[in-house]
Amino acid sequence: MIHIEHVSKVYKTGAIETAALRDIELTINDGAFVVILGPSGSGKSTLLNVISGLDTVTSGTITFGDTVLTDLSSEQMTAFRRNHLGFIFQQYNLLQNLTVYENVQIGADLSTDPLPIEELLDQVGLAAARDKYPYQLSGGEQQRVSIARSLAKNPSILFCDEPTGSLDEDNSKRVLELLERLNETYNKTVVVITHNTGISEMADDVIKMNSGRIVEYTHNPSRKAARDIHWG
Amino acid sequence: MLYKNVWKTLAGKWMQLLAIAVIIVMSSLTYTMMFYGISGIEVPTEEYLASSNQEDFAVEMLNRVTEEEAALPELADFVASGRYTLSELRQVDEAAFDDLIAARIDAVEGEMEDATLELRASKLFNYPFGSSEHRGLVLKEADTINTSYLEAGKRPERDDEVAINAKYAEKNEIEIGDTIDLGTPFTVSGFVLFPDYTLPLFDENFFNLDPGTQTLLLMTDAAYDEVVGTESFRLAGVSDGTVVTDIELPFVISVMETENIMRSGAIYSEISSGKAMALGLSLFIVSIAVIIVAILISNMLEAERGQIGLLKAIGYNRRQIALPYLIFILLFATLMLIIGYFLGLYFAEPLKNLYLDFYLLPSITIAQSPLVFLTAVFAPLLFFALVAGSVIYKIMGESALALLSPRDNVSLNRLSRIVSRLLRNARGKTKFKYLYAVKSTGSFIIFFFGILFSTLLIVFALMMNGAVDQMTVGELNEADYEYEAYTTTQPALRDGQEPFLTYPFAFVEDKLVTLKGLDETNTLYRLTNADGDNLTPASDEVIVNASLALKLGLEAGDTIDIELDNETLSYKIRGIADEYAGDVVYLPRATLSEQLSGGTTRDLFNGIYATERPDETYYPTVISRSGLIEQTQSINEYMNLMMNVMIGGSALIAFSILFVLIALTVEKNYYVISLLKVMGYDRSEVRSMILNSYFIYGLVSALLSIPIALIILRVIIVVFAEDYGLVLPLEFEWVYVLYTLGAVTLLFFTSTFISRRKIDQIPLQEVLKTYQE
């Protein structure tokens, strides 16, 4: 479980201060599927950055279980990311000179208890493409490799920053189905940042942000399947 | 505005540009320095050698009376007296000597049409100079071939006058009019050069090129006759036709053309190889510089694709956008090439003086040549313009839309596929590490060959280090005697004196060799093989020195046939003595004595090794071991300097290549580095994944340079042995592998220091930016 208490983030450019996050209070439960919605500049990416340790907070605390993430040193945070966090970005970020298998393997190498690569490739529907290079894959396929790579080290939480931002509806739904399946099959906590309000229909919790604040928190009593969501 | 933008971009890369500047400067510096340094001696040398009528070839002949000549009635008394050398003949019967030489000249001229020959007589002797011992080679003035060349003053007119080498005078602060003691006092009348000794290699048994401890001398004929020393004779020849080198006459040892004689002809290959090396080295360095600049521009433009696309979209044409990049790059290259040119001009003078420290040649002040300037500056500039221009033009040629869109993924190069296959079963991060360095074929080739070239020079330098010492004083360092002295009278031996017997007129496989008889009980001059094991000649086994063994391909256990006075003696080779001075076969003194005396005595000797200076009344020629070692100090210092220059220069090139390529790699891979950090790889893992493959590839490159160096080395040894009859003891030791790898390690960690810090500083948020791989 992740607890975010009174977290603020202020960026300073010379004498100008910009508050990206303002007194955020939030709890993300283990195994939850959380969607963070908001327009550009609302602070949703900053929130993901500070939760995942990609950026530091100006004030407040973030705890994961018994660990206070905001007290960790840079090296300790690296170790935490290595052991617990997986990332999926809008850009697929695949390493161009490695094959599909090798791209996933480089994620698995980080863990002492990785998930089987072959099984993951099977899960993402790319078992047959294991020896292909990224340039030989479509965008949707590349994003699925990226997901497999994130999962390979068997993280507890998966942070997804606009994972379908570069994909068409068909490919987007395939990726979302995959995230849904991972959430349900492996009980992974999934945090998705998106502009697309339709994706919120498949979440347990939906957080809407604006001007660095959480403006709305919704708990869905029932989740829609990824294939049934309204694509907007 | 466009110019300002490009200027700012380039200014941000000042460290890479600085390293590239070093490489560019070194390319024109190398060419200019070497070319001017060589031409500074080439022009006056050509004039000097022509005016002094340098020999076209030389006939090395037996300095003793042959069996056929001994049968001549006019030599009957001389031979009956037990004497046999030409020098002795000249002393006792000059007319008979002149007739014998005239007959020899006729015989050679009969074999070679269009050739004219002249006797070349010289005496080699040692004399004390201050606390040191110096050597002089006094040459008799020739009539037409190899005439003396006066640099200053006048030729000796009185019997107490002498002309010496200007370089010797300079190094010993001697001026014209000063008196020097060559056994008897002489007044220096002038400074002289001889065209058959452009290199001060007076004695093939002692490799010493130091003009500070030895000099050529010109005296009157009468003064020459009074000099006590080892007298040698050969025939110097000029010919308008073909030089016949395979003359088979009993007194002829060899006929060699000047280009193949080290003392007179080494300068020709020095000049030609120096010029070729100047061009080759600078071309190699400039190629590295050009390709690195091309990679830098390509990376720079790729990073600015969007910006360039925008400029095209708003109406700037390809030429307008490309011109600022091209102009700045060419201005930068021009400036560095000009700096390199003037630095080269500055260093050409010391280089020329370095040549003149070992070659006995006249000198002129180096004059600048427009052609050299054009070659050093404009030729590489054209190279830069073409390569940089085509890279810029290619990227600018893409449409605005293509430039504004993220770059399409590109396929893998062949090298990556090969490495990928080789690492099929490796871990993911290992594959990543080794594949990343080969991602760009151009960068990898520059890196690989740059390191290969640098380590090659380092290996050479290491090999040269021990070689010269071995060639000059290798065995002297190991000996326990202080003086080596020669006698014709066999005086009674004293304590601390051990006799030896030499005979320099034997042949092995038609090669003139010196036989040296040593006592088994000899302690002052011990022979050892390359492993340091003691060798002692036995009655039925001889020891061959390394020089002769290498020339004839002899090994321990082989049998050699020694031709001695029309008699063939077969001996088994007990071992190869680790010596490179002359071509020597060692055997027991008693055996040699018996052979030379026709079985009458086993106790002949004509020299001794001694711990105290022998009485010169009985030993006219006394050579000090420490004096000889001292004489070679200069050449050893020169070789050390050369070695340091080679190591320093190659290290600087390797450092610059590593620095630039790794800085560019880090810069180009900000995104990937950030991604690895986000994934959870820690600082040392990321450094290792991005940089350490270069280290491994660098070590592989260094290891590869060793067999290449050995092959080149073998070629050099063969060429020197075949062309000059000189065996270079260039040897490889396994410890050099450690030194070379150590040098690469040091270079790698110093040149990547900044890049390592840069990797640490790359923020995690970089990964959130547009993907740029």
Account of the protein in words:
The complex is a heterodimer of chains A (232) and B (773). Chain A has 232 residues and is α/β, with parallel strands linked by helices. Chain A contains six helices and ten strands. In chain A, the strands form two sheets. Chain A has a six-stranded mixed β-sheet with strand order 6-7-8-3-9-10, with helices on both faces. Chain A is globular. In chain A, 50% of the residues are buried. Chain B has a six-stranded mixed β-sheet with strand order 8-3-2-9-1-10. A six-stranded mixed barrel of chain B has the order 12-13-19-16-18-17. Chain B is of the alpha+beta class and 773 residues long. In chain B, helix 15 packs across helix 22 (683-724). Chain B is built from 24 helices and 21 strands. Chain B is elongated. The chains are: A alpha/beta (232), B alpha+beta (773). The A-B interface holds A 45, 49, 53-55, 75, 78-79, 81-83, 85, 87, 89, 91-93, 95-99, 102-110, 133-135, 153, 161 and B 408-412, 416, 420, 427-429, 431-432, 435-436, 439, 671-672, 675, 677-683, 764-765, 767-768, 770-771, 773.
Topology readout:
The complex is a heterodimer of chains A (232) and B (773).
Chain A: E1 2-13, E2 16-28, E3 33-37, H1 44-51, E4 59-64, E5 67-68, H2 74-84, E6 85-89, H3 100-108, H4 117-123, H5 139-152, E7 157-161, H6 169-185, E8 189-194, E9 205-210, E10 213-219
Parallel strand pairs in A: 3-8, 3-9, 6-7, 7-8
Antiparallel strand pairs in A: 1-2, 1-4, 4-5, 9-10
Chain B: H1 2-11, H2 14-51, E1 57-61, H3 67-70, H4 76-80, H5 86-92, H6 94-111, E2 115-129, E3 132-139, E4 149-153, E5 161-164, H7 166-171, E6 179-181, E7 185-193, E8 214-218, H8 221-226, E9 230-239, E10 252-257, H9 262-303, H10 305-313, H11 318-358, H12 370-396, H13 400-404, H14 414-422, H15 428-437, H16 441-478, E11 483-486, E12 497-508, E13 511-518, E14 527-528, E15 534-535, E16 541-545, H17 546-552, E17 559-564, E18 567-577, E19 584-588, H18 589-596, E20 607-610, E21 621-624, H19 625-631, H20 633-668, H21 670-679, H22 683-724, H23 735-751, H24 753-761
Parallel strand pairs in B: 3-8, 5-7, 13-19, 16-18
Antiparallel strand pairs in B: 1-9, 1-10, 2-3, 2-9, 4-7, 6-7, 11-20, 11-21, 12-13, 12-17, 12-20, 14-15, 16-19, 17-18
Helix pairs in contact in B: 1-11, 2-9, 2-11, 2-12, 2-20, 5-6, 9-12, 9-16, 9-20, 11-12, 15-22, 16-19, 16-20, 16-22, 16-23, 20-23, 20-24, 22-23
